[in-house]
Write a structure and sequence with these properties.
Helices cover 34% and strands 20% of the residues. The protein is of the alpha/beta class. It has one domain: Vaccinia Virus protein VP39 (Rossmann fold, 3-Layer(aba) Sandwich), CATH 3.40.50.150. Strands 3-2-1-4-5-9-8 form a 7-stranded mixed sheet, sandwiched between helices. A two-stranded antiparallel ribbon has the order 6-7. It binds S-adenosylmethionine.
């Protein structure tokens, strides 16, 4: 039995034992192979980024993945466009996992790179992604709520399954979204993913809290920070849901409002 229960979960982000998040268990449940829903997400995100950078080539790009956890595919999606990528996470164990991946990331991530290469702009990228990942990615342990002095520092951003999956508080959900956009330069392209109506999730025998947000709440929360916002449900055809306790996944993309 997992320890803890949904009823006795800590409510706020600061009360959650993030250092007990088990990256190996999280990966074996979510990212050992490419699930169809992740292939859908990857297709949307890679096409958004490649469309943008086709129109605006040659600018130095600084990317950030907020709440990166044990997921490398948002960083891989940003890789061809970036001169540096920051992976930010609060959990010591997730940060340890990410640091261990820097030198030569694990072979199962190659299948995610293969999905990205279904877009010709990623095929045209001539670098070895593993080598490039080692060169430009830096991992930072930190609290996303706590970086006010770095407004507009990044020019490309991702935040996958974080804002709604860090506490039960809708206020913290909205604050996390606000912080994410705060770090991005006006006009910066972004992609984010959310669980709709999530009741929390289990990793390695421990429950972690989530905030139940509907698609219209996600859309309206992001709207005031963005332009050309799209929010798209994904994974609706899946018979077996990859992750438990949610109704669907939502991918959001667009640009930070100028
Ligand atoms: C559900 S996991 C999502 C991980 C990953 N982005 C993915 O796509 O699977 C939520 C992540 O948010 C991180 N997190 C929670 N609160 C945070 C905070 N205040 N600042 C930064 N990261 C945080 C957790 O450590 C965890 O890695």
């Amino acid at each position: 039995m997992p320890s803890g229960s949904l009823e006795d979960l800590p409510q706020l982000n600061a009360d959650v034992p993030w250092d007990e998040f088990n990256p190996a268990d999280y990966i074996s449940h979510n990212y050992r192979t490419v699930h169809p829903v992740d292939a859908e997400i990857i297709a949307i995100v890679r096409d958004h980024f490649s469309d943008h950078f086709r129109r605006f080539p040659g600018r130095p790009v600084r990317g950030i993945d907020v709440g990166a956890g044990a997921n490398l595919y948002p960083a891989l999606a940003m890789l061809p466009w970036c001169e540096e990528i920051t992976l930010l996470d609060r959990s010591k164990r997730n940060v340890g996992y990410l640091r261990d991946q820097l030198d030569s990331y694990d072979a199962h991530w190659d299948a995610f790179w293969y999905e990205l290469r279904k877009n010709g702009r990623y095929v045209a990228y001539s670098c070895d992604p593993r080598e490039r990942f080692r060169q430009i990615v830096r991992v930072e342990q930190g609290d996303l709520f706590d970086m006010a002095e770095r407004e507009g520092r990044w020019t490309l951003g991702t935040m996958f399954f974080v804002a709604e999956s860090l506490s039960t508080s809708e206020i913290e959900f909205r604050q996390a979204v606000e912080c994410f956009f705060h770090y991005l330069e006006p006009g910066a392209p972004f992609a984010a993913a959310f669980m709709e109506e999530s009741v929390g999730y289990e990793v390695g025998g421990r429950y972690f809290p989530a905030c139940k947000v509907r698609r219209d709440q996600i859309h309206s929360t992001l709207k005031s920070h963005t332009r050309e916002l799209r929010t798209i449900p994904v994974g609706e055809q899946d018979q077996d849901k990859v992750r438990d306790g949610y109704t669907s996944m939502i991918v959001a993309y667009g640009f930070r409002r100028t």
